[in-house]
Design a protein that fits this description.
Number of strands of chain A: 0
Strand content of chain A: under 5%
Number of helices of chain B: 10
Oligomer: heterodimer
Order of helices and strands of chain B: HHEEHHHEHHHEEHEEH
Radius of gyration of chain A: 39 Å
Shape of chain B: globular
Number of helices of chain A: 7
Largest sheet of chain A: none
Strand content of chain B: 15-25%
Chain lengths: 173, 212
């Protein structure tokens, strides 16, 4: 808009008002029965409305809203919570981001900072010593299996089955 | 069960087998307003081991994290929410601030966690060393709708998600929170993992944030 010529603004405003008035007239003529029909239907048959199932299909053909109830419910919930951003996202799909997009990739890359050297290994010797100590404990567990009374062989050579609940009470996790 | 035991006691050496056991499936969730929240799900053996350790050592982990950390308490979020509302209504001269640390889970230094675990619950040390002190693990992101897969190396931090993801993080930040509480005894600090809420006088808030 030219600031030195305010007449342009006035012209635009008149144009917008004219367009609004035109569309209101069209909408009233086509969608409402405010005005009396000009022709009293004497020259042709009365229009027959389509059956409901066709109306149903027609509605989903012209509409751009996804026809799954889940998405509509999610949008409704987010709008009620006041989160318009989530409501908009739920119209497109789930909350999972598409990692194929460049923006998502760059965000993910920033979340996983890479270092030139790999993780440091502090006190590796101590870590190995800890492992060896615990391995000893593990070995003692496995030896204890041999000494379980429930698994000892009977005189006839048959290995007795352990009683119900034995492993729940004795098996170390 | 034997494999879970070997993972728990940290006896598996660093190598492809360990990397396979600790690799996680990543899911990038939208986070308001324009961020991404990566959730990691471990393989079943790792998940089972983490859950068993978290259940077994729950009391010790709670003790190390301190009474300011409500992540390890049942209904911790509800408790903090009602507590904050109650305190704001009781004394309106105090102010409440929320300190948000960016990418806290993925960028915490593993050495800080290892130091705490080494000092306080040594039973957890082999597993934490197995988890954090060896070579980096891969987080595999796959988006089936677009057929895209991306692999990110995790060289720092702990994976976000899973049964035992927040416990090492909470233990790692516990000394800092203790120091902040000692430095500012009049301030009330409440934590839910990395979400830090502090209630105190106006003039001491800046000091508290600096301490954190």
């Amino acid at each position: 808009m030219d600031p030195h010529n305010p007449g342009i603004l006035k012209t635009l405003s008149v144009a917008v008002q004219t367009a609004r008035a035109k569309y209101v007239i069209i909408a009233r003529d086509r969608l409402t029965l405010d005005t009396v029909p000009l022709v009293p239907f004497i020259n042709s048959l009365l229009p027959v409305p389509p059956p409901p199932y066709l109306l149903y299909m027609f509605f989903f053909l012209i509409t751009t809203v996804p026809h799954t109830d889940r998405i509509l419910k999610a949008m409704d919930r987010h709008i009620l919570n006041g989160d318009m951003l989530k409501a908009r996202r739920s119209s497109k799909g789930s909350g999972v981001a598409n990692i194929g997009e460049a923006s998502i990739q760059s965000k993910l890359r920033s979340l996983y900072p890479s270092r030139p050297d790999d993780r440091p290994v502090p006190d590796l010797l101590e870590a190995r010593r800890q492992s060896v100590d615990h391995l000893t404990i593990c070995t003692s567990w496995s030896r204890s299996v041999v000494h379980r009374p429930a698994l000892q062989q009977s005189l006839s050579g048959h290995i007795a089955r352990p009683p119900r609940g034995y492993y729940l009470n004795h098996e170390p996790l | 069960m034997s494999l879970c035991n070997l993972i728990a006691i940290g006896s598996l050496p660093d190598g492809p087998a360990r990397k396979l056991l600790l690799s996680g499936k990543g899911t990038a969730l939208h986070k308001s307003p324009t961020g991404i929240r990566p959730i990691v799900t471990l393989v079943p053996c790792g998940q089972c081991t983490s859950h068993a350790i978290a259940t077994e050592y729950k009391a010790q982990i709670q003790e190390i994290c301190g009474d300011k950390q409500f992540m390890v308490v049942s209904y911790g979020c509800e408790i903090v929410s009602h507590l904050v509302r109650h305190q704001l209504e009781m004394d309106q001269s105090k102010v409440m601030i929320k300190v948000d640390v960016k990418n806290a889970f993925n960028e915490i230094d593993p050495a800080a966690i290892i130091k705490v675990v080494r000092d306080e619950p040594p039973d957890l040390l082999p597993y934490v060393l197995f988890l954090l002190a060896m070579s980096s693990v891969d987080i595999i992101f796959h988006y089936s709708r677009a057929g895209k897969t991306r692999v990110h190396k995790m060289t720092t931090g702990v994976p976000q998600g899973g049964s035992l993801s927040s416990a090492p993080f909470d233990m790692g930040i516990a000394p800092s929170i203790r120091r902040a509480q000692i430095t500012h005894p009049t301030a009330s600090i409440y934590l839910i993992a990395d979400d830090n809420t502090c209630r105190s006088d106006c003039h001491s808030q800046d000091d508290h944030v600096t301490s954190c």
